[in-house]
């Protein structure tokens, strides 16, 4: 079965789009070109107005102080971890910098968020998955500062740009399930119901901002109730929480490598939804894809995956419909959602 990354880049996520960088710092054989002030990356670390606007939407106006202080924080972390900045990017919850280690020249990624809890949650999950080859490696962290240092993934092409196959997805899902089966005493991760509430609140805000709502509020409310009911039952494991083709990179040996988790404790089958729905436009194809994936991933429940698809598909449909899309896939998503 061949999948694709044809889903809208605003599916089950909250603004993170993988490690895309928005533009490299000038770099030549002598290293980064320095400004007249001697700062090799001062401009790179500054937060542009459009990025500030995006962060304000997510965190509120108080994030502007963090934006102002970010260049100094990046300077301190780069000095501590022996890094030179090369490029900058990020999504709706973080700034991400591609860096070179000054001693080895190896590429690494410095990720900073204005909300330290986000970094703490990601660090806890990455440490739990430390032995999983399908998850990016955490090299260092300053959790009070909301900072993570992450290993580079090679070749690192986002899977949304590639043709992918369900056996590759199955290997990824199997690796993600090799983790502590229940929350530890000191876990900072919240239950899956919290993640669901956030996603549906985000969809509701998108609908409220639309000139004409393409989805009836009752459809969204019924889907939220169904998702919360699923979250209240079933198995409990470590869930990536934002597993879609933009948050998975091509790794060594064509292995998929997950990045940017929004981890929770809950039903691991939640992570399969984007992969079985991608490119699907009829119920028979969806059921075939679920059965094929279930045959490759032990303990994956075909019925629960189908139930998750029915409950969450409205979250995939809303951004597509707000963008004016009326293709067969979008119509199927809305039909599956009961809209």
Automatic annotation (TrEMBL):
InterPro entries linked to this entry: Kinase-like_dom_sf, NH2Glyco/OHUrea_AB-resist_kin
Spell out the Pfam families in the cross-references.
APH_6_hur
Q: What is this protein called?
A: Aminoglycoside O-phosphotransferase
The molecular function terms of the Gene Ontology recorded here are: phosphotransferase activity, alcohol group as acceptor
Which Gene Ontology terms describe the biological processes this protein takes part in? secondary metabolic process
Gene3D superfamilies referenced in this protein's UniProt entry, alphabetically:
Transferase(Phosphotransferase) domain 1 (1.10.510.10)
Species, as recorded? Streptomyces sulfonofaciens
């Amino acid at each position: 079965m061949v999948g694709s990354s044809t889903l809208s880049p605003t599916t089950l996520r909250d603004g993170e789009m993988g490690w895309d960088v928005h533009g490299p710092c000038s770099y030549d054989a002598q290293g980064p070109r320095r400004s007249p002030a001697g700062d090799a990356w001062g401009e790179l670390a500054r937060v542009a107005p459009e990025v500030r606007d995006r962060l304000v939407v997510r965190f509120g106006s108080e994030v502007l102080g963090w934006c102002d202080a970010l260049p100094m924080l990046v300077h301190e972390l780069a000095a501590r971890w022996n890094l030179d900045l090369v490029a900058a990017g990020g999504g709706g919850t973080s700034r991400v910098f591609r860096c070179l280690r000054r001693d080895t020249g190896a590429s690494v990624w410095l990720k900073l968020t204005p909300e330290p809890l986000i970094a703490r949650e990601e660090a806890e999950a990455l440490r739990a998955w430390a032995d999983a080859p399908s998850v990016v490696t955490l090299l260092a962290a300053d959790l009070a500062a909301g900072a993570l240092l992450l290993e580079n993934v090679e070749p690192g092409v986002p899977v949304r740009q590639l043709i992918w196959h369900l056996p590759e997805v199955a290997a990824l899902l199997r690796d993600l399930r090799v983790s502590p089966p229940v929350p530890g005493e000191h876990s900072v991760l919240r239950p899956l119901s919290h993640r669901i509430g956030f996603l549906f609140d985000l969809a509701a805000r998108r609908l409220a901002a639309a000139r004409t709502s393409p989805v009836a509020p009752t459809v969204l409310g019924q889907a939220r109730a169904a998702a919360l009911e699923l979250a209240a039952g079933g198995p409990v494991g470590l869930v990536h929480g934002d597993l879609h083709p933009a948050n998975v990179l091509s790794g060594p040996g064509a292995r998929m490598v997950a990045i940017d988790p929004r981890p929770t404790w809950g039903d691991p089958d939640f992570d399969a939804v984007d992969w079985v729905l991608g490119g699907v436009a009829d119920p028979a194809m969806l059921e075939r894809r679920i059965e094929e994936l279930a045959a490759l991933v032990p303990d994956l429940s075909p019925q629960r995956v189908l139930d998750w698809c029915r409950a969450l598909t409205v979250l995939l449909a809303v951004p597509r419909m707000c963008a004016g899309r009326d293709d067969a896939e979008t119509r199927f998503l809305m039909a599956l959602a009961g809209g």
